[in-house]
Amino acid sequence: MSFLELRDVSVAFGAGSRRAEVLSGIDLAIEENEFVAVIGFSGSGKTTILNLLAGLTQPTSGEVLKRGEPILGPGHDRGVVFQSYSLLPWLSVYANIELAVRQVFPEMTPAERRSHVERYIDVVKLTPALKKRPSELSGGMRQRVAIARALAMRPEILLLDEPFGALDAITRATLQDELLRIWEEDRRTVLLITNDVDEAILTADRVVPLKPGPRATLGPSFEIDLPRPRDRREMNSCPRFESIRNEISGYLSHLGAASRSQDRRPIPPKPDLRPRVFATLKSTHAV
Known about the structure:
The protein has 287 residues and is of the alpha/beta class. The chain has 9 helices and 10 strands.
């Protein structure tokens, strides 16, 4: 029995003619303390997989399990980091994290809670910005707060939904390295949703591609057998890194080409968009 499992999971939204089948027959097993990256095209249903494990979405059919027990809703055992930061704008860095800690650990004394919060603020190197509000922070700093908040909840599972997708390249690389450093120090089960092949290879133990939807399914897993800790500068000159990148990129390119060929449909004739009065006047004038 795996730590986390999706067993023959399908998800559909809507009903009747508006019913949209997003995922179909998804099988995924994640071991405890494993770092798995799910990679795929935008709109393929990657976030839906994360929402299933977070308990924010229930499957239309199939099972979502943790240690063999159904996941029926959100829980403190799962920390989620969204791409949009999701910080309360009227609270400081400290207060955003302290609010989450207070909910998860109500038994902590004020002194214990303060020490706990400050520790995770220090982990993401934001101690100088402890009293600042989100509007006073850069995008990268806001994402650090979101990561610190999730880590401070001490979840067994960390669910990351393209957490660096909205950042510039330099900030993105910096936070990827920070995430790796934190994970090496305090390992836990991680699912990363991404559309960046290099990010997936750099961070994960295993990369699982998601085929384009509708009715998206998972492709074969790619084991990332690169030694840890990983250094991006060394990875750029590593033949095995290049080989894995080419394998995954080639597979995704094949999926993209197959998806485009299936979408080729006859183009219908253009409708007559002229106002009826204009069309009638033109016909009368011709007579």
